[in-house]
């Protein structure tokens, strides 16, 4: 009777190890998928942002030129100073918003961490 129990125990341990390895593999695949999605999102976002910046810069140059031409005779210096303050202020506000967005909670592996937390909670007995 003893050899059957040890074979059963050894078999159970192998199954447990196999299950643990399978869980770890699934979690690593989830992390890999999240990393790939995040990489694509960043690439797309940076590409669109670069194009938007080019068009915005060209538009601002044309707008500033138009305003300066309209006010050339009487208020050229005031118009140039006003446009400079407006553009620098807008740039500072946008930079602050961009920095705030980069520091938002969640992180790149938010779903993986949550899934691992659920795994850990499922494996621990409830408190008495």
Secondary-structure-derived class: mainly alpha
* Poorly predicted regions: none
End-to-end C-alpha gap: 37 Å
Q: How does the overall form come out from the CA principal axes?
A: rod-shaped
Total strands: 0
Q: Helicity, in percent? A: over 70%
The largest sheet is: none
Tell me the fraction of residues in β-strands, as a range: under 5%
What's the number of domains?
1
Q: What is the succession of H and E elements?
A: HHH
| pLDDT averaged over residues | 82
Whole-angstrom Rg: 30 Å
User: Helix count?
Assistant: 3
How would you summarize this macromolecular structure in one to three sentences?
The chain has 128 residues and is mainly α. It contains 3 helices and no strands.
How would you describe what is shown here?
The protein is 86% helix and 0% strand. The model has no long low-confidence stretch (mean pLDDT 82). Helix 1 (2-70) packs antiparallel against helix 2 and helix 1 (2-70) runs antiparallel to helix 3. The protein has helices spanning 2-70, 76-102, 110-123. It has three helices and no strands. It is rod-shaped and about 100 Å long. With 128 residues, it is mostly helical. The protein has one domain.
SSE blueprint:
Elements: H1 2-70, H2 76-102, H3 110-123
Helix pairs in contact: 1-2, 1-3
């Amino acid at each position: 009777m003893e050899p059957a129990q040890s074979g059963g125990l050894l078999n159970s341990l192998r199954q447990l190890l196999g299950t643990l390895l399978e869980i770890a593999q699934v979690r690593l695949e989830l992390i890999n998928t999240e990393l790939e999605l995040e990489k694509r999102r960043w690439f797309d976002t940076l590409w669109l942002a670069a194009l938007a910046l080019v068009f915005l810069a060209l538009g601002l140059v044309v707008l500033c030129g138009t305003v300066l031409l309209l006010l050339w005779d009487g208020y050229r210096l005031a118009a140039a100073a006003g446009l400079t303050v407006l553009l620098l202020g807008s740039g500072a506000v946008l930079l602050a918003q961009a920095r705030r967005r980069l520091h938002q909670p969640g992180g790149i592996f938010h779903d993986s961490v949550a899934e691992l937390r659920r795994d850990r909670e499922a494996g621990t007995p409830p408190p008495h």
